[in-house]
Amino acid sequence: MGGLTFDKLLIIGVIAVFLLGPERLPHYAAQLGKFVRSMRDMANGAKDRMREEMGPDFDDVDWRKLDPRQYDPRRIVREALSEVDPFAEPAKPVVARAAVNENSAYLQRKRKLDAIAAGESAPFDSEAT
Question: Which UniProt keywords apply (predicted)?
């Protein structure tokens, strides 16, 4: 709903009461109600007209797939520039294994912890306070 929470709507309502005053508030509230009803009727009319023009295919359309917010321009450009046929059967994914670095900090720490668990004494730092 555009980030409008009940708290924000309540604050807007209180500000509107103070700005408009009790004399003009009912008139503007009635106009807002008419506007909301006309927008709802317009949206319902457009939906009914689409249903009439498309016929039974209207209910089969996946509308979420056509939502423009789901388009990623980078993906579209990547697919357009790739040599792969987008309608071909998908190939099995290739899983690449990275080479294991035996001197990584993670493996060094793991070896130290395993050694401490095996009974060795913990490292001692004479400079620590």
Answer: Membrane, Protein transport, Translocation, Transmembrane, Transmembrane helix, Transport
